[in-house]
Each structure stands twice: as C-alpha cells, then as structure tokens.
Specification:
It is a single chain. This protein is 31% helix and 24% strand. It has 434 residues and is α/β, with parallel strands linked by helices. Strands 1, 14, 15, 16 and 17 form a five-stranded mixed β-sheet that branches. Strands 3-4-2-13 form a four-stranded mixed β-sheet, covered by helices on one side. A four-stranded mixed β-sheet has the order 5-6-8-7. Strand 16 (283-285) and strand 17 (288-296) form a beta hairpin. The longest helix is centred in the N-terminal third of the chain and has 14 residues, at 84-97. The chain is globular. The relative contact order is 0.12.
Length: 434
Amino acid sequence: MITIRPPGDKSISHRAVLLSAVADGPSHIEGLCDGDDVRSSLSVIEKLGAQIEVTPEGHGLRASVRPRNQAAAPQEVLECGNSGTTARLAAGLLVGLGVGAVLDGDASLRARPMRRVVYPLQAMGAKIDYLDERNRLPVAIRPRATGSLRSLKHRPRVASAQVKSAILLAGVLDGVPVEVHEPVRSRDHTERLLAGLGVPVECAEGEAGSVAVAFDPGVWSGSIRPLDMTIPGDPSSAAFMIAAALLMRRPIRIEGVSDNPTRTGFLSVLEEMGATVERGDSESRCGEPVSAWTVRPPDRLRAFEIGGTAIPGVIDEIPILAILAARGVGRSVIRDAAELRVKESDRIDRLSRNLAALGVTVSERDDGLEVEGTTARLTGAISAAGDHRIAMAFGVLGETPAATLELDDPECARVSYPDFREHLRRVTEPIGHD
C-alpha cells in the first residue's frame, strides 16, 4: 500500500508562526509547511522584529522564533506574496499591537477582497486606509499611540476563518472582548491554538450549525505561552494524493494528518462516492487532533451532491472533488460555494473552463458547478491562472489513465505543497516500479 505523509498543515503553520512573534518567550516549531505562503508569514514577523532561525527538516521546516522586540516597527512594506491568510491575519495582529505598517501582495492577492477583514477591524477603532483600489491591497494600518480598541460582536454573512482569526488576534493582543457569531463553523485552528497557549477563548454551538467564538480577558494574565509543537500534516494537501490513488484504483494510507473536524468534510464526500475510509486513533497536538487515514477505492466512483453547511469544511478541496466528479458515474452538483470566486483565482470559472476544454460536460452556476462524469480520454491545454489548487487538481488528472494534459504553470503548486510532484509520482507510478 502507498503511504504518504503530507506537508505540514498550511493553515496551522501560518497561525503558529504569527503567534510565535507575540508569545512570552522563544518558540520551537517543527514540521512547518515549506510553501511560499508560509514563508510570507515568516518574512512578516521577521520585519516586525522577531528573530527567526529556520532550518530544513525532512519535507518541511524547523523554526526557532524569539518574539518581536516591543520597540520594533517595520521599516518596509510587509509583502504577503500570494497569501491571503498572511495578509488578513497580519492585519489583525498589527491592529492588536497598535503597530503601523503597509500590507501588500502580488497581483493575484491584490485582486482579492479585503473589506471583509478591514471593516470589523475599523469597527474596533483601527485606522486603516486603502492606498490604491478600495477593498483591495495595499492597505496602510496606522499606528495607535494611545487608548484601546473597542469591544466587538461581529456577525458575518459568510463564515470565514481568516476574518474570525483577525478579530480574535486584535482582541487578544489588545485585551478587549470580542465575539464572532458564524452562520456555520469555519475552520477553528486559531481558537484551538490560542486555547492551547493559555488564552481564554470559548466556543458555543447555536442553532442550525451556527457557532459563537468569544474572547473575554476577564482575569486573564495576558500571557501567551511560547509554542513547542509539531505541525500536523495538511488534510487539504492529502486530498490530492487520495484523489490520485482513487483514480488509479489503489488504496492509500495518509500518516500524521490533522483530523480536525472542520477540515475533513471531503472524507464524507469520498464515502458518498463509494470509497472506504478508515481513520486511526487520534492524538492531540496543541489542541489539534492528529490521525492516520486509509482510503480504499470503489469499483467505480459515484456522483455526489454537496452544498449548504458542508461547504466551509470542503472549500479548499472542491477543485480536486470536481476532478473526481469528472470521472464519476452520473452528474455531480456543487452549490453554495460562491466563496470560490474570490480565492487565488475565480475557481468556479477556472474549473468550468478547464473541464470543458478537456471535453467534460460541465455547467457553471453562480455558486458552483454541475459536472457529468465520463470515461472518455481527456486531452487539452489547461490554464491554472497561477492558482496552486487548480494546478494540483489538474496535475492529478494528468497523471492518471486516459488523460493527456498540458498545464501552463505546474510550479505554482509550491505555494502550499513543494513536494507535490514527488508524492504524485509515488502514487501514480506503475506497480512494481523499481
């Protein structure tokens, strides 16, 4: 059986790096994702005055971080590259610290919306200006010389872990109460990590899948304990290798992967498609469950339908699920996923155009896709539009039988999965390959 250990979880890596800059002592983090996005977060905290020592470790990074010098202020623009998580969480970090800086990114990140995080931070009293186009990077966060932020109760229309995290970071670092009431639970790595470091963050489930996340400093000492942790494997990266194994009709074992319930919704979709999923016993790492999964293929993949409250738990896996849908039996439906239009690319548009270019019958909806499965040979040119998840999804398809693809930018997978090509080769190479 093929065994893969995916790279360190990108979402947890970002949060661990940013919190290490404001902890009460030196932090030691192993297994960091060595993708370009996480390196953007490392660059940001270094410019904020943290002292960092980073060394390669297997397929990831080991980082030792001394927290930022309280007197330090960035002398340069904080470049976030292609990383929306870096930009949005760093905004909350800066606002909470009262430190001024300019946040910017590459052309792709400049096209992504910022109002969803800027607006609630402004409601807390932060002074934030758009320097070019409204609702877009670059933004200037003005320093706060005196006074505290205002408490905030925020009720977003769309659940967003990045927005929730920015608000929590601002509240925690300035010691003011904040609450975020989400219509459905988004990934909860920030609140798990904060709680694991001694910060009083509480979560309460409401009706119809809603959840309230609250920070109240109360009698809290204000201390954020240093981190000493190993980052779990990334389930979103693992999804690409699992999909490749299913398309090759091979079983696969994924080791050391985050088993966080806000990240494993795609396993339920795979089961709906007929795959068998076995999950091993889990252990806890700084509040994060970690496990091993074994996934076995069915004789034929079945069509699926997904939408509603399930979408936040599979939002990053939808590109590869669309690829599986193209090889399933019947018509698969993805709805309520309009958030995909404001990712690194308009992923709904990219998936629709690329699948159609290969000869797949696909219907684009405002909030998703309908994909008709086929066993026909798929051939054509694919544009990833610089989007790592689009590149990896079609990269998987291109290495499986009855598909011949020309992908314009395979290297953009480095954003989140530097070893993608190596791992994919291991999953798809002929049995008995020496």
